[in-house]
Amino acid sequence: MQIIAHRGASGLAPENTLKAMAKALTLGVSAIELDVQAADDELWVFHDRRLERCTNGKGVLTEQSRAYLEQLDAGEGEVIPTLWQVMEIIAGRCELHIELKGADTADAVAALTRRAEAELGFTPGQWVVSSFHHPELARFATLRPDIRLGALTANLPLNLAQFADELGAWSLNCDVDFVDRILVEDAHQRGLRVLVYTIDYHEDYEKMASMGVDGIFTNRPDRFL
Questions:
Q1: How far apart are CA 186 and CA 159, in angstroms?
Q2: Contact 196, 217 (CB under 8 A)
Q3: Distance of CA 32 to CAs 50, 65, 95, 128, 203, Å?
Q4: Does the predicted TM-score (pTM) go above 0.85?
Q5: How would you class 41 by CB atoms within 10 Å of its CB: exposed for 0-12, middle for 13-18, buried for 19 or more?
Q6: What CATH number is attached to the domain comprising 7?
Q7: What is the tens place of the pLDDT at every residue in 74-121?
Q8: By residue range, what is the domain housing residue 157?
């Protein structure tokens, strides 16, 4: 089962920061996951819609200026990194799963993956781009048809993994609260991988393994490597 560092090694360092990414690399993970939002013509690695939980800032991230976002403390003196800064740290040393957090991210991420392949040693096979925003994911697919897609869901769909199949996804990325054996089997029958978030405890890991899950997103990759 693949172990994917969720927002970096976010159980050991502030989530989605360069420190969390560096820690995950030190642990030797084969893949890192992060979240991307667009603000002031830049791609920022940040999960929440609002800034309050993870920084000393206030407001909706996408409505802020670059100057404001750059000076915020994202924990332990870390700043909110840009996607390019994270790409520079990873530099093709592991897979990078990029979650598009909303609209207006697909075009910029597509362009930046191309730049990272040219300048940082990444290959197209090292990316997985995912989203709950399925129209944005479909948009990304038209821009980079050579990159694998992860179709995200936080529920148990009526038609199981059909939506991911229709999106042309490589993986079905699903919430641990809603995954079950029937969903996993349906996804596998459609040729999809099943990746589950968020698994931090061994008993949950064992349950996922018993269902045949292909990978997990974890805040504590150190517990499973």
A1: 9
A2: yes
A3: 23, 27, 6, 10, 22
A4: yes
A5: exposed
A6: 3.20.20.190
A7: 999 999 999 999 999 999 999 999 999 988 999 999 999 999 999 999
A8: 2-223
